[in-house]
From TrEMBL:
Pfam families in the cross-refs: PAPS_reduct
Protein known as: Uncharacterized protein
Highest taxon in the source lineage: Bacteria
Molecular-function GO terms, alphabetical: catalytic activity
Organism: Clostridium felsineum
Length: 325
C-alpha cells in the first residue's frame, strides 16, 4: 500500500472518530492495555471533545501485571481515569463452574452444547443424530458441517471431528468464561451508565471470527436497549497501525516490548495459537500468574497439545496413537 493511501486511511479514521463522538452523548471506550487499544485511545484523545467519555478496562481475573502497569502509564500520559470493571465471576471461577475454553470460541461453544446432551461423538448424518438429540440442532449442524459458511462448521478446524471421535474430551469444555467475565459485565456497565456508543479496537486485519463478523467500522444499535458500536481502527492494516504508532509516539506495554508477546488479554488463554510461548514468558516474568494459568487451564492445554500432535501425524499420513492424560 502506498504511504499516501495509509495517510488517507489514518486521516479518515480521525475524521470519522470526531463525527461519531460528536453525534453521541455518553461514550464507553474499552481499554484492554493491548496494542490496538493504545491506538484507539490516542485517536479518541485527539478528538478533544466535551462529551462524557468513560475509559473502562475489564479485569477478567487473569491479567498480566505488565498490563496493569501499562494502564497506569496510560492514565498518566493522557490525564484520564481508566475505570477497572471486575466481573461477578472471574475466569477461574467460570472455568470451575462451566468448563475450560478449548481451541476457539466457536468450537468451545459447540462442544459445550454437545456435552450437555451427553453426545457420544459419532460420525452419523445430521438427520440420524437430530433424531437422537432433538434439542441440540445448532451444535449438530456444526458437527455435521451443515452451515453454508465454512467458518461455522467443524471442518474449519482440520481433523477436529476425527480427533473428538477418537479421543472424546474427558473434561468440561465451555466458552462461558468470555460471556461471564466480559460480555455480561460490559452490558451491565453500558446499561447502568446510559452509554449510547461503545468504542473498541477490533481491526479487520486481525482475522478470526471476531473481525469477520463485522463488515464496517460502525454497527448501529439493533434496538433502543443496545448501543451503537464504533471501531475506529477497523480498516488499519498492520502497516498502517505501525505508521500511526511511529508518527504519534505510541508506547505499548511491556507484554510487547519486553516479554515479546504478540497479543495480550487473559493470561495464557488456551485460544491463543502461541499459548506455549506465552506460558514460557509467564514462567520467566510473572511466575505467580504462570502457576494460576497452568492450574486453571490444565486440561485444555493438554488436550490442545494432543490435538496438535494428532493433526501433525494425520498430515503426515502417520498412524495416530496418542496416550491422552
Ligand atoms: S479470552 Fe480466553 S480466558 Fe479470557 S475470558 Fe475469553 S476464553 Fe476465557
Amino acid at each position: 500500500m502506498l504511504e499516501q493511501d495509509s495517510k488517507l486511511i489514518i486521516a479518515d479514521a480521525l475524521g470519522s472518530a470526531r463525527n461519531r463522538i460528536e453525534s453521541h452523548n455518553r461514550i464507553a471506550v474499552s481499554i484492554s492495555g493491548g496494542s490496538d487499544s493504545d491506538t484507539v485511545l490516542d485517536i479518541i484523545k485527539k478528538c478533544k471533545t466535551e462529551k462524557d467519555i468513560f475509559f473502562i478496562n475489564f479485569n477478567t481475573g487473569l491479567e498480566y501485571q505488565a498490563t496493569k502497569d501499562h494502564l497506569k502509564y496510560l492514565e498518566n500520559k493522557y490525564k484520564i481515569k481508566i475505570e477497572t470493571i471486575r466481573p461477578e465471576k472471574p475466569v477461574p471461577l467460570c472455568v470451575k463452574q462451566y468448563g475450560e475454553p478449548f481451541l476457539n470460541k466457536r468450537a468451545s461453544e459447540m462442544i459445550m452444547r454437545l456435552q450437555r446432551h451427553n453426545f457420544t461423538w459419532e460420525d452419523k448424518s445430521f438427520e440420524e443424530l437430530y433424531k437422537q438429540y432433538p434439542n441440540c440442532k445448532s451444535a449438530l449442524r456444526w458437527w455435521c458441517n451443515c452451515y453454508d459458511s465454512y467458518s461455522l462448521n467443524i471442518s474449519n478446524n482440520k481433523f477436529l471431528k476425527e480427533f473428538l471421535i477418537e479421543y472424546p474430551p474427558e473434561f468440561q469444555i465451555s466458552n462461558l468464561c468470555c460471556h461471564y467475565a466480559k460480555k455480561v459485565v460490559a452490558a451491565e456497565f453500558n446499561k447502568s451508565h446510559n452509554i449510547d456508543l461503545v468504542v473498541n479496537g477490533i481491526r479487520k486485519a486481525e482475522g478470526g471470527i471476531r473481525s469477520v463478523s463485522y463488515k464496517s467500522c460502525f454497527t448501529p444499535a439493533k434496538d433502543k436497549k443496545k448501543c451503537d458500536v464504533y471501531r475506529p481502527i477497523f480498516w488499519f492494516t498492520d502497516d498502517i497501525k505501525r505508521q500511526y504508532e511511529l508518527e504519534n509516539n505510541i508506547v505499548h506495554s511491556k507484554c510487547y516490548t519486553e516479554y515479546g508477546l504478540k497479543r495480550t488479554g487473559c493470561t495464557g488463554c488456551p485460544y491463543g495459537k502461541n499459548f506455549e510461548f506465552e506460558l514460557m514468558v509467564l514462567q520467566k516474568y510473572e511466575p505467580k500468574l504462570y502457576k494460576a494459568a497452568a492450574n486453571v487451564f490444565k486440561n485444555s492445554y493438554e488436550y490442545t497439545r494432543q490435538y496438535r500432535k494428532y493433526v501433525k501425524l494425520k498430515n503426515n499420513n502417520g498412524n495416530v496413537q496418542l496416550s491422552l492424560f
